[in-house]
Protein backbone atom coordinates (compact mmCIF):
# COMPACT_ATOMS: atom_id res chain seq x y z
CA UNK A 1 0.00 0.00 0.00
CA UNK A 2 1.29 3.44 -0.91
CA UNK A 3 2.56 5.69 1.89
CA UNK A 4 0.68 8.86 2.80
CA UNK A 5 3.26 11.63 3.09
CA UNK A 6 2.45 14.43 5.52
CA UNK A 7 4.06 17.70 4.50
CA UNK A 8 3.94 21.10 6.11
CA UNK A 9 0.89 22.10 4.05
CA UNK A 10 -1.65 19.63 5.34
CA UNK A 11 -3.36 16.63 3.84
CA UNK A 12 -6.21 15.79 1.49
CA UNK A 13 -9.51 14.10 2.19
CA UNK A 14 -8.25 11.12 0.23
CA UNK A 15 -5.22 10.91 2.55
CA UNK A 16 -7.49 10.81 5.59
CA UNK A 17 -9.65 8.05 4.14
CA UNK A 18 -6.62 6.01 3.08
CA UNK A 19 -5.15 6.06 6.59
CA UNK A 20 -8.45 5.74 8.46
CA UNK A 21 -10.13 3.05 6.39
CA UNK A 22 -7.39 1.29 4.47
CA UNK A 23 -4.59 1.37 7.02
CA UNK A 24 -2.18 3.23 4.75
CA UNK A 25 1.18 3.95 6.42
CA UNK A 26 2.15 7.55 7.09
CA UNK A 27 5.49 9.29 6.57
CA UNK A 28 6.53 12.73 7.82
CA UNK A 29 8.18 14.78 5.07
CA UNK A 30 11.52 16.42 5.76
CA UNK A 31 10.06 19.93 5.45
CA UNK A 32 7.44 19.05 8.05
CA UNK A 33 10.12 17.84 10.45
CA UNK A 34 12.07 21.06 9.88
CA UNK A 35 8.98 23.16 10.63
CA UNK A 36 8.31 21.17 13.80
CA UNK A 37 11.87 21.77 15.00
CA UNK A 38 11.68 25.51 14.27
CA UNK A 39 8.44 25.99 16.19
CA UNK A 40 9.83 24.00 19.11
CA UNK A 41 12.75 26.40 19.40
CA UNK A 42 10.23 29.23 19.86
CA UNK A 43 8.41 27.37 22.63
CA UNK A 44 11.60 26.47 24.47
CA UNK A 45 12.75 30.09 24.34
CA UNK A 46 9.44 31.21 25.86
CA UNK A 47 9.60 28.47 28.48
CA UNK A 48 12.93 29.87 29.68
CA UNK A 49 11.46 33.33 30.28
CA UNK A 50 9.85 34.40 33.58
CA UNK A 51 6.69 35.76 31.91
CA UNK A 52 3.75 33.30 31.92
CA UNK A 53 2.61 31.94 28.54
CA UNK A 54 -0.65 30.01 28.28
CA UNK A 55 -0.09 26.30 27.74
CA UNK A 56 3.65 26.65 28.22
CA UNK A 57 4.03 27.87 31.78
CA UNK A 58 0.44 28.16 33.06
CA UNK A 59 -2.47 25.95 33.95
CA UNK A 60 -5.35 25.37 31.54
CA UNK A 61 -8.87 26.65 31.04
CA UNK A 62 -10.16 28.31 34.18
CA UNK A 63 -6.87 27.35 35.88
CA UNK A 64 -4.76 29.41 33.48
CA UNK A 65 -4.20 32.05 36.18
CA UNK A 66 -1.56 29.90 37.88
CA UNK A 67 2.07 30.19 36.80
CA UNK A 68 3.76 26.76 36.73
CA UNK A 69 7.43 26.52 37.73
CA UNK A 70 9.85 24.64 35.42
CA UNK A 71 10.21 21.60 37.67
CA UNK A 72 6.45 20.98 37.56
CA UNK A 73 5.88 21.40 33.81
CA UNK A 74 6.35 17.78 32.79
CA UNK A 75 3.89 16.83 35.52
CA UNK A 76 1.55 19.55 34.23
CA UNK A 77 1.45 17.92 30.79
CA UNK A 78 0.97 14.41 32.20
CA UNK A 79 -1.79 15.62 34.47
CA UNK A 80 -3.51 17.41 31.60
CA UNK A 81 -3.66 14.29 29.44
CA UNK A 82 -4.61 11.94 32.27
CA UNK A 83 -7.38 14.17 33.60
CA UNK A 84 -8.79 14.91 30.15
CA UNK A 85 -8.90 11.22 29.17
CA UNK A 86 -12.31 11.09 30.81
CA UNK A 87 -14.52 9.60 28.12
CA UNK A 88 -17.37 7.25 28.87
CA UNK A 89 -19.56 4.83 26.97
CA UNK A 90 -18.79 2.34 24.21
CA UNK A 91 -15.66 2.63 22.13
CA UNK A 92 -15.95 4.42 18.81
CA UNK A 93 -15.04 2.77 15.54
CA UNK A 94 -11.43 2.06 14.60
CA UNK A 95 -11.65 4.18 11.45
CA UNK A 96 -12.79 7.19 13.49
CA UNK A 97 -9.85 6.90 15.87
CA UNK A 98 -7.32 6.46 13.07
CA UNK A 99 -8.77 9.45 11.23
CA UNK A 100 -8.65 11.54 14.39
CA UNK A 101 -5.00 10.62 15.05
CA UNK A 102 -3.95 11.26 11.49
CA UNK A 103 -5.56 14.70 11.47
CA UNK A 104 -3.89 15.63 14.75
CA UNK A 105 -0.56 14.45 13.30
CA UNK A 106 -1.25 16.62 10.25
CA UNK A 107 -1.57 19.64 12.54
CA UNK A 108 1.58 18.76 14.46
CA UNK A 109 3.38 18.62 11.10
CA UNK A 110 2.23 22.15 10.26
CA UNK A 111 4.93 23.67 12.48
CA UNK A 112 2.35 25.74 14.36
CA UNK A 113 1.99 23.72 17.58
CA UNK A 114 5.47 23.79 19.11
CA UNK A 115 5.87 20.09 19.87
CA UNK A 116 9.16 18.24 19.59
CA UNK A 117 9.89 16.06 16.61
CA UNK A 118 9.73 12.91 18.76
CA UNK A 119 6.07 13.52 19.57
CA UNK A 120 5.04 13.59 15.91
CA UNK A 121 7.27 10.65 15.05
CA UNK A 122 5.82 8.57 17.88
CA UNK A 123 2.26 9.29 16.77
CA UNK A 124 3.17 8.22 13.23
CA UNK A 125 4.75 5.04 14.60
CA UNK A 126 1.64 4.18 16.61
CA UNK A 127 -0.53 4.61 13.50
CA UNK A 128 1.81 2.52 11.39
CA UNK A 129 1.93 -0.24 14.01
CA UNK A 130 -1.85 -0.61 13.82
CA UNK A 131 -2.29 0.38 17.47
CA UNK A 132 -5.67 2.07 17.94
CA UNK A 133 -6.41 3.87 21.23
CA UNK A 134 -9.70 3.10 22.95
CA UNK A 135 -11.75 6.28 22.51
CA UNK A 136 -15.18 6.49 24.10
CA UNK A 137 -18.46 7.75 22.68
CA UNK A 138 -18.97 10.58 25.18
CA UNK A 139 -16.56 13.26 26.33
CA UNK A 140 -16.29 15.96 23.67
CA UNK A 141 -18.23 19.22 23.57
CA UNK A 142 -16.64 20.17 20.25
CA UNK A 143 -14.83 23.19 21.67
CA UNK A 144 -11.27 23.58 22.91
CA UNK A 145 -11.04 20.65 20.52
CA UNK A 146 -12.34 17.12 20.84
CA UNK A 147 -10.64 17.07 24.22
CA UNK A 148 -11.49 13.71 25.76
CA UNK A 149 -11.17 11.68 22.52
CA UNK A 150 -7.81 13.27 21.72
CA UNK A 151 -6.62 12.87 25.31
CA UNK A 152 -7.24 9.11 25.12
CA UNK A 153 -4.97 9.09 22.04
CA UNK A 154 -2.33 11.23 23.75
CA UNK A 155 -2.39 8.87 26.72
CA UNK A 156 -1.25 6.08 24.40
CA UNK A 157 1.81 8.11 23.36
CA UNK A 158 2.69 8.30 27.06
CA UNK A 159 2.48 4.50 27.30
CA UNK A 160 -0.68 4.50 29.39
CA UNK A 161 -4.29 3.37 29.00
CA UNK A 162 -5.71 0.72 26.69
CA UNK A 163 -5.63 0.27 22.94
CA UNK A 164 -6.64 -2.20 20.27
CA UNK A 165 -3.74 -4.06 18.75
CA UNK A 166 -3.34 -4.97 15.09
CA UNK A 167 -5.19 -8.21 15.87
CA UNK A 168 -8.23 -6.32 17.15
CA UNK A 169 -7.70 -7.33 20.78
CA UNK A 170 -7.79 -4.58 23.43
CA UNK A 171 -4.72 -4.72 25.68
CA UNK A 172 -2.65 -2.46 27.96
CA UNK A 173 -0.81 0.15 25.91
CA UNK A 174 2.55 -0.55 27.54
CA UNK A 175 2.49 -4.10 26.17
CA UNK A 176 1.51 -3.01 22.66
CA UNK A 177 4.18 -0.31 22.46
CA UNK A 178 6.86 -2.70 23.72
CA UNK A 179 5.94 -5.31 21.12
CA UNK A 180 6.09 -2.68 18.38
CA UNK A 181 9.41 -1.30 19.60
CA UNK A 182 7.95 2.14 20.33
CA UNK A 183 9.25 4.09 23.33
CA UNK A 184 6.67 6.12 25.29
CA UNK A 185 7.09 9.90 25.21
CA UNK A 186 7.53 12.08 28.28
CA UNK A 187 5.65 15.21 27.33
CA UNK A 188 7.18 18.62 27.88
CA UNK A 189 5.95 22.23 27.74
CA UNK A 190 2.95 22.79 25.48
CA UNK A 191 2.92 19.22 24.12
CA UNK A 192 -0.01 17.81 26.06
CA UNK A 193 -2.13 20.77 25.05
CA UNK A 194 -1.06 20.50 21.41
CA UNK A 195 -2.13 16.86 21.34
CA UNK A 196 -5.71 17.46 22.49
CA UNK A 197 -6.71 20.89 21.19
CA UNK A 198 -8.28 20.30 17.76
CA UNK A 199 -11.43 19.55 15.79
CA UNK A 200 -9.92 16.32 14.44
CA UNK A 201 -12.60 13.88 15.56
CA UNK A 202 -15.52 15.78 14.10
CA UNK A 203 -13.56 16.62 10.94
CA UNK A 204 -12.56 13.00 10.37
CA UNK A 205 -16.15 11.86 10.74
CA UNK A 206 -17.29 14.65 8.40
CA UNK A 207 -14.87 13.51 5.71
CA UNK A 208 -16.02 9.91 6.02
CA UNK A 209 -19.68 10.95 5.93
CA UNK A 210 -19.07 13.01 2.79
CA UNK A 211 -17.47 10.01 1.07
CA UNK A 212 -20.31 7.70 2.11
CA UNK A 213 -23.05 10.15 1.19
CA UNK A 214 -21.63 10.75 -2.26
CA UNK A 215 -22.07 7.05 -2.96
CA UNK A 216 -25.54 6.99 -1.39
CA UNK A 217 -26.80 9.98 -3.36
CA UNK A 218 -25.85 8.17 -6.56
CA UNK A 219 -27.53 5.01 -5.27
CA UNK A 220 -30.68 6.97 -4.45
CA UNK A 221 -30.83 8.40 -7.98
CA UNK A 222 -30.68 4.84 -9.33
CA UNK A 223 -33.40 3.48 -7.04
CA UNK A 224 -35.56 6.53 -7.81
CA UNK A 225 -35.19 5.77 -11.51
CA UNK A 226 -36.12 2.12 -10.96
CA UNK A 227 -39.17 3.12 -8.93
CA UNK A 228 -40.25 5.60 -11.61
CA UNK A 229 -39.91 2.85 -14.19
CA UNK A 230 -41.80 0.28 -12.13
CA UNK A 231 -44.62 2.80 -11.60
CA UNK A 232 -44.82 3.50 -15.34
CA UNK A 233 -43.91 7.10 -14.64
CA UNK A 234 -42.85 9.81 -17.05
CA UNK A 235 -39.16 10.43 -17.67
CA UNK A 236 -39.96 13.71 -19.46
CA UNK A 237 -39.50 15.60 -16.18
CA UNK A 238 -35.81 14.69 -16.30
CA UNK A 239 -35.14 16.61 -19.51
CA UNK A 240 -32.03 18.83 -19.30
CA UNK A 241 -33.94 21.90 -20.49
CA UNK A 242 -36.24 21.65 -17.47
CA UNK A 243 -33.28 21.53 -15.10
CA UNK A 244 -31.63 24.47 -16.88
CA UNK A 245 -34.44 26.87 -15.96
CA UNK A 246 -33.80 26.16 -12.26
CA UNK A 247 -30.02 25.93 -12.33
CA UNK A 248 -29.14 24.14 -9.11
CA UNK A 249 -26.12 21.97 -9.96
CA UNK A 250 -27.16 19.07 -7.75
CA UNK A 251 -30.62 18.90 -9.28
CA UNK A 252 -29.16 18.75 -12.80
CA UNK A 253 -26.75 15.98 -11.75
CA UNK A 254 -29.48 13.85 -10.16
CA UNK A 255 -31.84 14.31 -13.09
CA UNK A 256 -29.08 13.35 -15.52
CA UNK A 257 -28.27 10.23 -13.48
CA UNK A 258 -31.91 9.15 -13.57
CA UNK A 259 -32.27 9.96 -17.27
CA UNK A 260 -29.24 7.84 -18.15
CA UNK A 261 -30.42 4.90 -16.05
CA UNK A 262 -33.83 5.02 -17.76
CA UNK A 263 -32.48 5.39 -21.29
CA UNK A 264 -34.02 2.75 -23.53
CA UNK A 265 -36.83 1.85 -21.12
CA UNK A 266 -40.03 0.47 -22.58
CA UNK A 267 -41.93 1.14 -19.35
CA UNK A 268 -41.72 4.86 -18.79
CA UNK A 269 -44.70 6.99 -19.67
CA UNK A 270 -46.34 4.74 -22.27
CA UNK A 271 -48.46 2.20 -20.42
CA UNK A 272 -51.08 3.98 -18.36
CA UNK A 273 -54.30 2.60 -19.76
CA UNK A 274 -55.59 1.59 -16.32
CA UNK A 275 -55.39 5.15 -14.95
CA UNK A 276 -54.08 7.82 -17.31
CA UNK A 277 -51.87 10.35 -15.51
CA UNK A 278 -50.95 13.87 -16.41
CA UNK A 279 -48.33 14.03 -13.67
CA UNK A 280 -46.61 11.60 -11.32
CA UNK A 281 -46.67 11.94 -7.55
CA UNK A 282 -44.14 14.27 -5.96
CA UNK A 283 -41.98 11.44 -4.59
CA UNK A 284 -41.39 10.35 -8.20
CA UNK A 285 -41.54 13.62 -10.11
CA UNK A 286 -39.51 15.69 -7.63
CA UNK A 287 -36.81 13.12 -6.95
CA UNK A 288 -34.08 15.23 -8.65
CA UNK A 289 -35.09 18.34 -6.74
CA UNK A 290 -34.80 16.64 -3.34
CA UNK A 291 -31.70 14.58 -4.06
CA UNK A 292 -30.17 17.54 -5.87
CA UNK A 293 -30.62 19.81 -2.87
CA UNK A 294 -28.82 17.18 -0.84
CA UNK A 295 -26.01 17.08 -3.38
CA UNK A 296 -25.58 20.83 -3.12
CA UNK A 297 -25.52 20.53 0.66
CA UNK A 298 -22.82 17.92 0.27
CA UNK A 299 -20.78 20.27 -1.94
CA UNK A 300 -20.98 22.97 0.72
CA UNK A 301 -19.90 20.49 3.39
CA UNK A 302 -16.90 19.50 1.29
CA UNK A 303 -15.93 23.19 0.98
CA UNK A 304 -15.98 23.56 4.76
CA UNK A 305 -14.07 20.30 5.21
CA UNK A 306 -11.38 21.40 2.75
CA UNK A 307 -10.94 24.68 4.60
CA UNK A 308 -10.63 22.82 7.89
CA UNK A 309 -8.12 20.42 6.34
CA UNK A 310 -6.00 23.43 5.40
CA UNK A 311 -6.10 24.70 9.00
CA UNK A 312 -3.71 24.31 11.92
CA UNK A 313 -6.06 24.19 14.90
CA UNK A 314 -4.38 24.67 18.26
CA UNK A 315 -4.24 27.17 21.11
CA UNK A 316 -1.89 28.90 21.46
CA UNK A 317 -0.26 28.69 18.03
CA UNK A 318 3.21 29.55 16.79
CA UNK A 319 2.86 32.07 13.96
CA UNK A 320 5.30 32.30 11.03
CA UNK A 321 6.90 35.43 12.53
CA UNK A 322 7.64 33.59 15.77
CA UNK A 323 4.85 35.05 17.87
CA UNK A 324 2.87 32.66 20.07
CA UNK A 325 -0.74 33.78 20.26
CA UNK A 326 -3.90 32.56 21.93
CA UNK A 327 -6.92 32.24 19.65
CA UNK A 328 -10.36 30.66 19.27
CA UNK A 329 -9.77 28.56 16.16
CA UNK A 330 -10.52 25.35 18.07
CA UNK A 331 -14.24 26.21 18.16
CA UNK A 332 -16.07 23.55 16.17
CA UNK A 333 -18.98 25.67 14.88
CA UNK A 334 -18.05 25.59 11.16
CA UNK A 335 -17.79 21.80 11.17
CA UNK A 336 -20.74 21.26 13.51
CA UNK A 337 -23.10 23.25 11.31
CA UNK A 338 -22.43 21.21 8.18
CA UNK A 339 -22.60 17.94 10.12
CA UNK A 340 -26.10 18.92 11.20
CA UNK A 341 -26.96 20.12 7.70
CA UNK A 342 -25.97 16.76 6.24
CA UNK A 343 -28.14 14.95 8.78
CA UNK A 344 -31.10 16.97 7.53
CA UNK A 345 -30.30 16.12 3.90
CA UNK A 346 -29.90 12.43 4.75
CA UNK A 347 -33.21 12.38 6.59
CA UNK A 348 -35.11 13.95 3.71
CA UNK A 349 -33.53 11.72 1.08
CA UNK A 350 -34.58 8.70 3.10
CA UNK A 351 -38.06 10.13 3.55
CA UNK A 352 -38.73 10.52 -0.19
CA UNK A 353 -37.30 7.04 -0.89
CA UNK A 354 -39.69 5.53 1.64
CA UNK A 355 -42.64 7.29 0.01
CA UNK A 356 -41.74 5.72 -3.34
CA UNK A 357 -41.47 2.30 -1.69
CA UNK A 358 -44.89 2.68 -0.11
CA UNK A 359 -46.37 3.65 -3.48
CA UNK A 360 -44.89 0.50 -5.07
CA UNK A 361 -46.55 -1.66 -2.41
CA UNK A 362 -50.01 -0.03 -2.43
CA UNK A 363 -52.15 -1.65 -5.13
CA UNK A 364 -54.42 1.42 -5.24
CA UNK A 365 -51.49 3.62 -6.29
CA UNK A 366 -49.06 1.28 -8.04
CA UNK A 367 -50.92 1.11 -11.38
CA UNK A 368 -51.44 -2.61 -11.64
CA UNK A 369 -48.82 -4.13 -9.35
CA UNK A 370 -49.99 -6.75 -6.82
CA UNK A 371 -50.56 -5.71 -3.22
CA UNK A 372 -47.23 -5.49 -1.37
CA UNK A 373 -45.59 -7.07 -4.43
CA UNK A 374 -46.66 -10.41 -2.98
CA UNK A 375 -46.68 -13.62 -4.99
CA UNK A 376 -50.20 -14.50 -3.78
CA UNK A 377 -51.55 -11.49 -1.86
CA UNK A 378 -53.47 -12.59 1.20
CA UNK A 379 -51.57 -15.84 1.50
CA UNK A 380 -48.30 -13.96 1.09
CA UNK A 381 -47.51 -10.61 2.71
CA UNK A 382 -44.71 -9.78 0.28
CA UNK A 383 -42.72 -6.71 1.26
CA UNK A 384 -45.29 -5.31 3.69
CA UNK A 385 -43.03 -5.44 6.74
CA UNK A 386 -39.92 -4.42 4.83
CA UNK A 387 -41.63 -1.07 4.44
CA UNK A 388 -42.32 -1.01 8.21
CA UNK A 389 -38.60 -1.46 8.82
CA UNK A 390 -37.85 1.25 6.31
CA UNK A 391 -40.35 3.60 7.97
CA UNK A 392 -38.77 2.99 11.38
CA UNK A 393 -35.38 3.96 9.95
CA UNK A 394 -36.85 7.08 8.35
CA UNK A 395 -38.42 8.05 11.65
CA UNK A 396 -35.13 7.63 13.49
CA UNK A 397 -33.33 9.75 10.91
CA UNK A 398 -35.86 12.52 11.44
CA UNK A 399 -35.00 12.49 15.14
CA UNK A 400 -31.29 12.46 14.31
CA UNK A 401 -31.82 15.52 12.09
CA UNK A 402 -32.48 17.67 15.17
CA UNK A 403 -29.38 19.89 15.25
CA UNK A 404 -26.77 19.32 17.95
CA UNK A 405 -24.98 22.57 17.14
CA UNK A 406 -27.78 24.76 18.50
CA UNK A 407 -27.06 23.45 21.98
CA UNK A 408 -24.35 24.71 24.31
CA UNK A 409 -23.59 23.77 27.92
CA UNK A 410 -20.96 25.99 29.59
CA UNK A 411 -17.91 24.23 31.01
CA UNK A 412 -14.62 24.90 32.83
CA UNK A 413 -16.16 27.18 35.44
CA UNK A 414 -17.70 29.35 32.72
CA UNK A 415 -14.36 29.99 31.00
CA UNK A 416 -15.52 27.84 28.11
CA UNK A 417 -19.03 29.25 28.10
CA UNK A 418 -20.09 28.46 24.53
CA UNK A 419 -19.38 25.14 22.83
CA UNK A 420 -20.25 23.62 19.44
CA UNK A 421 -21.36 20.05 20.22
CA UNK A 422 -19.74 19.13 16.91
CA UNK A 423 -18.64 15.68 18.10
CA UNK A 424 -22.26 14.87 18.96
CA UNK A 425 -23.35 16.13 15.54
CA UNK A 426 -20.79 13.84 13.92
CA UNK A 427 -21.78 10.79 15.95
CA UNK A 428 -25.46 11.11 15.06
CA UNK A 429 -24.64 11.75 11.41
CA UNK A 430 -22.76 8.44 11.24
CA UNK A 431 -25.90 6.68 12.44
CA UNK A 432 -28.06 8.61 9.98
CA UNK A 433 -25.80 7.70 7.05
CA UNK A 434 -25.93 4.02 7.95
CA UNK A 435 -29.73 4.22 8.29
CA UNK A 436 -29.95 5.90 4.89
CA UNK A 437 -28.08 3.01 3.26
CA UNK A 438 -30.66 0.61 4.71
CA UNK A 439 -33.56 2.80 3.56
CA UNK A 440 -32.21 2.89 0.01
CA UNK A 441 -31.65 -0.87 0.16
CA UNK A 442 -35.34 -1.46 0.93
CA UNK A 443 -36.38 0.71 -2.02
CA UNK A 444 -33.96 -1.27 -4.17
CA UNK A 445 -35.53 -4.57 -3.10
CA UNK A 446 -39.01 -3.26 -3.83
CA UNK A 447 -38.19 -1.54 -7.11
CA UNK A 448 -36.31 -4.50 -8.60
CA UNK A 449 -39.12 -6.86 -7.65
CA UNK A 450 -41.71 -4.48 -9.10
CA UNK A 451 -39.79 -4.20 -12.38
CA UNK A 452 -39.59 -7.99 -12.62
CA UNK A 453 -43.31 -8.35 -11.98
CA UNK A 454 -44.07 -5.68 -14.56
CA UNK A 455 -41.95 -7.31 -17.28
CA UNK A 456 -42.46 -11.03 -16.58
CA UNK A 457 -43.86 -12.83 -19.59
CA UNK A 458 -44.28 -9.61 -21.58
CA UNK A 459 -42.89 -9.19 -25.05
CA UNK A 460 -43.83 -5.50 -25.04
CA UNK A 461 -42.78 -4.19 -21.63
CA UNK A 462 -39.01 -4.21 -21.28
CA UNK A 463 -36.96 -2.46 -18.65
CA UNK A 464 -34.06 -0.18 -19.50
CA UNK A 465 -30.70 -1.89 -20.10
CA UNK A 466 -29.25 -0.28 -16.96
CA UNK A 467 -32.21 -1.50 -14.94
CA UNK A 468 -31.73 -5.03 -16.21
CA UNK A 469 -28.05 -4.86 -15.22
CA UNK A 470 -29.02 -3.73 -11.73
CA UNK A 471 -31.60 -6.49 -11.31
CA UNK A 472 -29.10 -9.10 -12.43
CA UNK A 473 -26.41 -7.80 -10.03
CA UNK A 474 -28.85 -7.59 -7.11
CA UNK A 475 -29.92 -11.19 -7.64
CA UNK A 476 -26.28 -12.28 -7.85
CA UNK A 477 -25.67 -10.49 -4.54
CA UNK A 478 -28.18 -12.76 -2.81
CA UNK A 479 -31.37 -10.71 -2.97
CA UNK A 480 -34.04 -13.06 -4.26
CA UNK A 481 -36.77 -11.99 -6.66
CA UNK A 482 -40.45 -12.70 -7.08
CA UNK A 483 -41.82 -15.74 -5.27
CA UNK A 484 -43.65 -17.01 -2.20
CA UNK A 485 -42.84 -15.47 1.16
CA UNK A 486 -39.55 -16.47 2.75
CA UNK A 487 -37.29 -15.33 5.59
CA UNK A 488 -36.81 -11.75 4.41
CA UNK A 489 -34.11 -10.36 6.71
CA UNK A 490 -31.21 -11.98 4.78
CA UNK A 491 -32.42 -10.37 1.53
CA UNK A 492 -32.52 -6.94 3.17
CA UNK A 493 -29.09 -7.46 4.72
CA UNK A 494 -27.64 -8.47 1.35
CA UNK A 495 -29.20 -5.42 -0.32
CA UNK A 496 -27.74 -3.16 2.38
CA UNK A 497 -24.24 -4.56 1.87
CA UNK A 498 -24.68 -4.21 -1.90
CA UNK A 499 -25.59 -0.54 -1.56
CA UNK A 500 -22.91 0.30 1.04
CA UNK A 501 -20.16 -1.33 -1.00
CA UNK A 502 -21.04 0.59 -4.16
CA UNK A 503 -22.38 -2.44 -6.00
CA UNK A 504 -25.55 -0.64 -7.07
CA UNK A 505 -23.69 2.20 -8.77
CA UNK A 506 -21.25 -0.28 -10.29
CA UNK A 507 -24.05 -2.31 -11.85
CA UNK A 508 -25.79 0.72 -13.36
CA UNK A 509 -22.53 2.24 -14.56
CA UNK A 510 -21.67 -0.93 -16.44
CA UNK A 511 -24.31 0.31 -18.89
CA UNK A 512 -24.48 4.07 -18.37
CA UNK A 513 -20.82 4.85 -17.81
CA UNK A 514 -19.79 6.94 -14.78
CA UNK A 515 -22.65 8.60 -12.93
CA UNK A 516 -22.37 11.76 -10.84
UniProtKB/TrEMBL annotation:
One of its GO terms (cellular component) is cytoplasm. Transmembrane segments: none annotated. Contains an active site 4-methylidene-imidazol-5-one (MIO), which is formed autocatalytically by cyclization and dehydration of residues Cys-Ser-Gly. One of its GO terms (molecular function) is phenylalanine ammonia-lyase activity. It is found in: Cytoplasm. It comes from the Bacteria. GO terms for biological process: cinnamic acid biosynthetic process; L-histidine catabolic process to glutamate and formamide; L-histidine catabolic process to glutamate and formate; protein homotetramerization. There is a cross-link at residues 143-145 (5-imidazolinone (Ala-Gly)). It is an enzyme of class 4 (lyase). Keywords: Cytoplasm, Histidine metabolism, Lyase. Its EC number is 4.3.1.3. Its main location: cytoplasm. Pathway: Amino-acid degradation; L-histidine degradation into L-glutamate; N-formimidoyl-L-glutamate from L-histidine: step 1/3. It catalyses: L-histidine = trans-urocanate + NH4(+). The modification 2,3-didehydroalanine (Ser) is found at residue 144. Belongs to the PAL/histidase family. This is Histidine ammonia-lyase. It comes from Actinacidiphila oryziradicis. The lineage of its organism: Bacteria, Bacillati, Actinomycetota, Actinomycetes, Kitasatosporales. The gene is hutH.
Amino acid sequence: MQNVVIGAHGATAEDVLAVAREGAPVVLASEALAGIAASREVIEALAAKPEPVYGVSTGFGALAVRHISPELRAQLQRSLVRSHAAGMGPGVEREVVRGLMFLRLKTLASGRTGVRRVVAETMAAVLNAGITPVVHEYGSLGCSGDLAPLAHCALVLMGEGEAEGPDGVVRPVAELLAEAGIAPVELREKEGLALINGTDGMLGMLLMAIADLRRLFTAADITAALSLEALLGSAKVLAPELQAIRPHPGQAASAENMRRVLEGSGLTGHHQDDAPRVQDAYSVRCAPQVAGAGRDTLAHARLVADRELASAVDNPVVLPDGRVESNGNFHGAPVAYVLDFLAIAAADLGSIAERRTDRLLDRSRSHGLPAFLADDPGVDSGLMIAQYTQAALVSENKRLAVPASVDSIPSSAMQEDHVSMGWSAARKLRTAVDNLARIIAVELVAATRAVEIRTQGSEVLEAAPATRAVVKAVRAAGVLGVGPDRFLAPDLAAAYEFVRAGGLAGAAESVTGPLA
